[in-house]
Design brief:
By secondary structure, the protein is of the alpha/beta class. It folds into 5 domains: 1-17 and 216-305, no CATH class; 33-184, Serine Threonine Protein Phosphatase 5, Tetratricopeptide repeat (Alpha Horseshoe), CATH 1.25.40; 329-465 and 654-728, 3-Layer(aba) Sandwich (Rossmann fold); 469-540 and 589-647, 3-Layer(aba) Sandwich (Rossmann fold), CATH 3.40.50.2300; 543-586. It contains 29 helices and 16 strands. Strands 8-7-9-10-11-15-16 form a 7-stranded mixed beta sheet, sandwiched between helices. Strands 2-3-1-4-5-6 form a 6-stranded mixed beta sheet, sandwiched between helices. Strand 10 (620-623), helix 26 and strand 11 (644-647) form a beta-alpha-beta unit. Helix 2 (33-51) runs antiparallel to helix 7 and helix 12 (234-244) packs antiparallel against helix 13 (250-264). The longest helix is centred in the N-terminal third of the chain and has 20 residues, at 186-205. It is elongated, with a radius of gyration of 38 Å. The two termini are 29 Å apart. Mean pLDDT is 80; it is low at 1-43, 49-56, 359-367 and 374-388.
Length: 744
């Protein structure tokens, strides 16, 4: 795959073939064919008067004089002029000026609002003088009249007989516009618009004025072409590409195909389409699309070349998102919708429903639910036989929070022929029971549990929830790259979670080239953290002489409290500078840049003031998602100022793939989504993305999910690891100004 640079966009665009001039300002409404054709026909009436005057053919002197007299009289008296032209035709039916006289009669009839009379004279021209230039002009005008009156077949018949080589550029572009307006085939319509554009350009090359013939100008016409092309289904884009070859807007068509391939996750096709676009000419308005595709391909290339390196939120935000509006298929759901954990199951289901855009549901949750959305728009993707392209259906089962019920639910759902994947279960025990069943039956299962062992050695089982390792990687990466931290300390609870997080953090620090210089644990029910904090900063393993030196320093500090603040500060500085018996610094020795505490927000509220008390001040505090609670800020206040935490979900994220979810969810359910809803949403969208990419069976869905890299999730950026566990980039937040602010 080639490397792309932003400079390419301007290089390509500088080779635009066509000028950017404008013609007159008449605009055409493409919303409905009758209105569009009426405007075109009205333009025809104005045009014919300009095109029929004069002739380049030779006539005898008598014919010429009689014709010129009629023309002069018509300027002053239309009715008398009509009489004289009719007399001319009666007397000179074979004159080289006969078709011009008929054209003048058609024009005079139009001036008198006699369209029927005008049509009669135009028909005479077509019938009696079919080989004359006026005959082709008459056919165009008659076609416009027929189109305006709804007689589309007759309008097309007339246009098919027009000899375009006999029309000047203004006449030709009018005929092209009529052809475009009459076409029911979008690619055929584009073909005629492209011809019209070429005629406009030819006209502009030979004129220093704005054409009054049809209006709109080159820029307006290009906007119409862009609007039409952007609305094409993929099949129409490919047809148009084959038809146009290298003519404008073939370059834009290939860029659109590349962007849509990116949206489907088909990066090989995206790159192939872009390579085909290379060397094409573009309209100036194509630059934004060109830059977007270049950036997206560069980001995808970097992710692949770096071996699945986790991209940033900004990176994935720059990649076009899939168009989920027309996805069709059947997805199963297994969640606890009754029992102790029903609240979390319902939140997860709401997220799935939000992803599927199945809104307005007012149904009581029961053990078996069948929910469907009705999509009416045309599908964009091909090759999805066996599914209703316009309908996405959710088949929901209540696990009741019981392992055996969850396993039976998977068996039931797998028996549905069209069902393509299952989302859930949520709880660890139910996921453990359901996973082997799904794997044996060969149906993809996207579990929402935190147990990382669930998908291991099971090729059809995946786990989507953010892991503790993901949180720690993000925190250590930030500490190293943004804070320049090298030395770390860990204060942890003495339970399985605390020890596990300590070990993960230590590994992550070592992987970044840092060093853990202090580690201290406390009992889970502790409220006084003095001993583990003091142990962490050098109070542990002191000699008797060092303890005596510390006692003397404490005595000096206690006595200094009677002094005024300025003297007290001076005494404190001197006391803290006292060395031990061997000349070594006395505790506290805060020789680390970052302090990581893997505990919940309520414990941090107790610990943080004691850190300050023990003079651990100028240190960056870090914690996992358990810190993410408003009380941490409102109660912890200055003691947690500047703390950096990971978050499994951040409803105030600035990125559209998160904010769109929050907005739609809130509008639908009347409440802000939580992390359970976000995980449900991401699981559904991950399955839907495979359907958009053309997956037709369960194996193809499984393979697509396994290849997922840089997926923009509401709960974080998602890479799928080979073992079926999602690796995710969580959100990073910082306590600033009395609230959490995003660092992403």
């Amino acid at each position: 795959m080639r490397r792309f640079a932003r400079g390419n966009a301007s290089n390509h665009l500088s080779r635009t073939l066509m000028p950017s001039g404008e013609t007159s300002a008449m605009k055409f409404n493409r919303a409905s064919k009758p209105n569009r054709l009426a405007l075109i026909a009205t333009a025809c009436l104005a045009w014919f008067a300009l095109s029929c005057a004069g002739t380049s053919r030779e006539a005898n002197d008598a014919e010429s004089k009689q014709y010129q007299v009629a023309a002069q009289v018509a300027k002053q008296d239309a009715e008398e002029g009509k009489r004289l032209f009719m007399e001319f035709l009666d007397q000179n039916p074979t004159s080289p000026l006969a078709d011009d006289a008929a054209a003048q009669l058609a024009d005079l009839s139009l001036q008198g609002a006699d369209e029927q009379g005008a049509a009669g004279w135009l028909q005479l021209i077509v019938r009696d003088y079919p080989d004359e230039a006026n005959a082709d002009r008459a056919r165009v005008l008659l076609a416009g009249m027929e189109a305006r009156n709804g007689r589309v077949v007759e309008a097309r018949r007339l246009l098919t007989k027009v000899r375009f080589e006999r029309l000047n550029p203004a006449e030709a572009r009018l005929a092209y516009r009529l052809f475009a307006g009459l076409s029911d085939d979008p690619v055929d319509r584009l073909n005629w618009q492209v011809r019209e554009r070429f005629a406009v350009v030819e006209e502009l090359k030979n004129a220093d004025y704005e054409s009054p013939v049809l209006g709109g100008g080159l820029e307006d016409l290009e906007r119409e072409i862009i609007t039409l092309v952007d609305s094409f289904a993929d099949e129409d884009l490919n047809r148009a590409s084959r038809l146009l070859r290298r003519d404008l807007p073939a370059g834009r068509i290939l860029l659109l195909l590349s962007r849509r391939a990116l949206q489907r996750g088909d990066f090989e096709a995206a790159n192939n389409y872009f390579e085909r676009a290379d060397g094409h000419d573009f309209m100036s308005s194509d630059k934004a699309l060109f830059d977007e595709v270049v950036l997206a391909l560069e980001l995808r290339e970097r992710i692949v070349e770096d071996g699945g390196t986790m991209p940033s939120f900004a990176d994935v935000a720059a990649i076009p998102r899939p168009d989920y509006s027309n996805v069709g298929g059947v997805i199963g759901v297994v969640l606890p919708l009754s029992g102790r954990f029903a609240k979390y199951g319902e939140q997860s289901l709401n997220g799935i429903v939000a992803a599927a855009r199945i809104f307005g549901i007012e149904a009581e949750i029961s053990s078996t639910i069948d929910i469907a959305n009705e999509q009416k728009s045309e599908p964009r993707n091909e090759g999805n036989e066996g599914r209703d392209e316009n309908r996405l259906r959710l088949v929901v089962r209540d696990s009741e929070g019981l392992p055996e019920t969850a396993a039976l639910a998977v068996v039931s759902l797998a028996a549905e022929d069209d069902l393509i994947a299952i989302i859930g279960p949520l709880l660890g025990d139910t996921a453990e029971a359901a996973a082997p069943v799904a794997d044996q039956l060969g149906i993809p299962l996207i579990s929402l549990t935190s147990r990382e062992e669930v998908p291991q050695n099971r090729s059809y089982v995946f786990r989507l929830r953010t892991s503790p390792r993901d949180e720690i990687r993000a925190l250590v990466d930030y500490a190293s790259s943004e804070l320049g931290a090298k030395r770390y300390a860990i204060l942890y609870p003495k339970d399985n979670y605390g020890r596990g997080m300590r070990d993960h953090f230590w590994e992550a620090v070592s992987a970044e080239g840092g060093m853990v210089v202090a580690s201290s644990g406390y009992e889970t029910d502790a409220t006084d953290f003095a001993r583990p904090i003091r142990d962490m900063v050098g109070y542990k393993l002191l000699t008797q002489k060092e303890k005596a030196a510390l006692e003397r320093r404490e005595t000096v500090l206690r006595r200094s409290r009677r002094l005024d603040p300025e003297e007290q500060r001076l005494v404190r500085d001197v006391a803290n500078a006292l060395a031990g018996p061997e000349g070594d610094p006395l505790p506290p020795q805060v020789d680390f840049d970052v302090l990581f505490i893997p505990d919940s927000h309520d414990k941090i509220i107790l610990i943080s003031p004691q850190l300050t008390f023990h003079e651990i001040d100028d240190v960056n505090l870090m914690g996992p998602s358990g810190w993410n609670h408003p009380e941490l800020v409102s109660i912890g206040r200055k003691h947690v100022r500047g703390a950096v935490i990971s978050a499994l979900f951040h409803e105030e994220s600035r990125f559209e793939f998160v904010s769109d979810f929050v907005r739609h969810y809130t509008e639908t359910f009347g409440e802000t989504p939580d992390v359970f809803a976000a995980h449900g949403f991401d699981a559904a969208r991950l399955v839907m993305a495979q359907l958009i990419a053309g997956a037709n069976d369960r194996e193809e869905v499984r393979n697509g999910i396994l290849r997922t890299q840089g997926f923009p999730g509401a709960s974080g950026v998602i890479n799928m690891a080979p073992d079926g566990n999602a690796r995710k980039r969580p959100f990073l937040l910082k306590v600033r100004g009395g609230k959490f602010v995003s660092l992403d």
